[in-house]
Design brief:
This protein is α/β, with parallel strands linked by helices. It has twelve helices and 27 strands.
Amino acid sequence: MLKLSLVLLAMILLGTGFSAAQTPAVKYDYPPQPSLDLMNQTDADRTVLIDGNDQSASWGTWDCKTFVIDWNFAAPVRVRSLQVAIHHPVNPDTDATHPRLLQLFAAGEDGQFDDEPNVTLPIPFQKGAIQRISLPVPGDGICARSLRTRFEGTNRQIVIGEVTFETQTISDEELNAWLQAAAAAKPDPLKPVTFLPPRPIDLPAPPQKSIFGAAGHMLHTDHFYPGHFSQYWRMEYTLPFMQLLRISSVREPIYQDYFKEELAENRKLVEQYIAAYDRAGINVVICAIVSNSGGDGKPGEPGLESFCRWIADMAKRYRCIEAVEIGNEPNLPPFWKHSYQDYVDSAREVARLLRQEKPDLPIIVGSFSGMGGVWMRPDMLAEAGSEERDQAIYWAIKCFEAGLLEFADGVSAHPYCESETQPEGGVFLQSRKDPNGYEKELVDFWTLVEKYNVNRRPLKLYFTELGYEITSTRDAQWQADYLSRHMLILLAARVNRGLPIERVHWYDFKEDDAVVGASGWGLVANNISHVRPAYVAYQQIAKTFGDPDDLVPIDVNPVFNNWPESIKHFAWQRKSDGAIVVPFWRMDQLQKKDVDFDSELTLELPESFTVSRMDVMDLHANQPLPVGFHQEGRTLKTAVHITRRAAWLILHAQ
């Protein structure tokens, strides 16, 4: 029996150093994957998986959630188990840097791996700075001459320490027999299928007051990236689905390098896409990403003036362009390697150039990852202090202090929730266990903005990215559960708490190509062949709550007789028809048993409000369903079925 003990470092957002001794019996290689060039630079000889000194090593990029290594054995082996040491350097109590699973792929002498893994091993999370775990391979193990290990991370960080293979040497005949049996057990490979764009549809424009939108990527096509992206982000594919979704706004990044003056063809195509949005009545927030945003040199030069003049000219000609957002997640070095002062100076110059052409063009600043944290800025991380709360907003504070709000009409952030299906708890500023934590956190952030808004500009709040990723352990139904709750919490933040939320852009409208590591995001399949359950849920939310100004909070004192502490609920009355709407769902993270359940609901209605009909909009369905009830005086009783996907009652008055 042979044991191979190797020390690996696989890391996406931060690094650490380890010592290592290479075992001669096995060699390793990096297959094509994000950050391959960086890995090759750091480990050019493929002899150690560390950088060779005591400095931190950075393996991967921000959009890489997997770490893949091919192990080439000197002779065929049967791998019976693996032992892995997993590091949790960001927070030992959370799974933010934890790989949720390990996939194993077997290959023979030819070194050819199938697309599908032979074995998938879940890796349960245990708290602690270092988690050591043994992963037995089911059955008699996996046989290989080359073995591919693919760790899949919970977030964009994976830090693996020691990996030990427990192996047994086998003959070539045994290996070939195992590989043949494994191949015979797999289904025939699927043949490629190409979908054609649907015919254009004619629908009225969506409600312009709606806060609900999505993040688009109209540049992620074979036109701008030949050989890297497919055709499915082209507008003829996506626009009909956006129209049917009834969202009011889409955020579209535009990268300066692709729109130099001599690239007239690119400008023409984008203007065709903007014109299509304009005809459909869907507003566009352009995210202007200037040259050198991720590299050296003066950001935006050369050609910044021409780029800004072109965007402003489009805004004059197409009314759908409602605002320009300057940059994307500048607190993350992959997008902005410069200082916060450089970002403020660059944003100020972009705003000046845009307003030279169109003085009334709304300017959005910030575009913070999270709410302006400095997780990828080691120097600023130390400067911010040891408190997680302070680190989470330090970049934003420094930008505000440097004058970022002096020329802004809106502030944007990307408040993704750090959870599986529970968007209610806080992320960094409030307790993750607080069922109102996320709402409080939004209020905290807006309070921070207003503190530095010394000129009292009438700022609006844009959440230009937030979403939920489908993974091998989090399916499409969970995505729909999460979206339904998250969107209603954001709506309540505006209606109940008075936050000036102008737009919310779900990331992503469509599943992107695997080249950007975004296959798990999106409401619609990559090739537009089908929509996911979250699309259907979002469609009903956008249809029902298209005008937040039509809603006012109302106190109807909801009382649930079963597990009330685990039920989230709101109550609003519509100005337009007087109907009362009561959203509700179960917060599975607060339940001792994670199950759907029934509950009796009692409401205390306003004087003289008599219910003529009551419906429930169950987001597992696609239309409201009638509900029985009993009203005596002001007291109304009914029964509801409560799931972790949001639903709402609609009480129609006589």
